[in-house]
From TrEMBL:
Annotated organism of origin: Alteribacter lacisalsi
Residue ranges of domain N-acetyltransferase in the record: 44-121
Gene Ontology MF, one: acetoin dehydrogenase (NAD+) activity
Biological-process GO terms, alphabetical: acetoin catabolic process
Name assigned to this protein: N-acetyltransferase
Keyword Transferase: yes
Coiled coil location: none
Highest taxon, organism lineage: Bacteria
Alphabetical UniProt keywords: Transferase
Amino acid sequence: MKHKKTYHSLEINKGDKSILVEGPIKKEALESFKMDDGLVAFRPPDKQKEALLKVIDFPESRLIIARDGDKIVGYATFLYPDPMERWSEAELDNLLELGAIEISADYRGYSLAGSILKVAMKDDAMEDYIILTTEYYWHWDLRGTGLSIWQYRDVMEKVMSAGGLEPYATDDPEICSHPANCLMARIGSRVGHDSVLEFNRVRFKHKYML
C-alpha cells in the first residue's frame, strides 16, 4: 500500500516550557535536532539518534517527536513488526507496531506520551492501519517512577487510550507469561474485514481460545 503521511502538531505550554509535539517528521528535520540526555531507555542518546535515522528511511516508518526548541525530549516510532516477531506472520501491509515510545525523565509530568499518540492518530491515513503495541512489565521503569506493576499497567493503558488503543486478548506465550503484560491495538475505521480476520488469526494460534 502507499504510505501517506500528513504532518500534524500540538503545542504544550506549562510553566516556562513550551514543547512542540509534531510528526511524522522527515529525516532532514531529525538530523537537525539533538537528543535530550535523559533519553537513555534503549541506548545512549547519540546512538538512539543513529538508530532513528536508520528506521526513518523505511517507507512505512512514522516518527513523532516532542521537542523543546531543537532538543528532542520524547518520541514514538511506528514500523512494520520485526520479522522475528509473531505479529509479522500476518504479512499485512496495513499492520504497524508502536515500536518504541520514550520520554526523557526530566520531562515527565507534561503528558507527552499521550500527546505524541494523539498527534500520531490525527493523520487520517491511520484509519487504514491496524496499530498494535505489546507491553511487558520487565520493560517498565518501575524503579524510576516508584510505581507498582499494576499502577504502571494502569498508566500505560491510559497513555495508549489517548491514541485510541485498547487491550486485546491473545495466546502469545510472552504476553500470557504474566497477567500485567498485554497486547493493545487500534483498528482503523477503513481497515477491511479480511485484515481484521488475519489479525485475529495471528492473535490466536490455538482455536480453543477464540
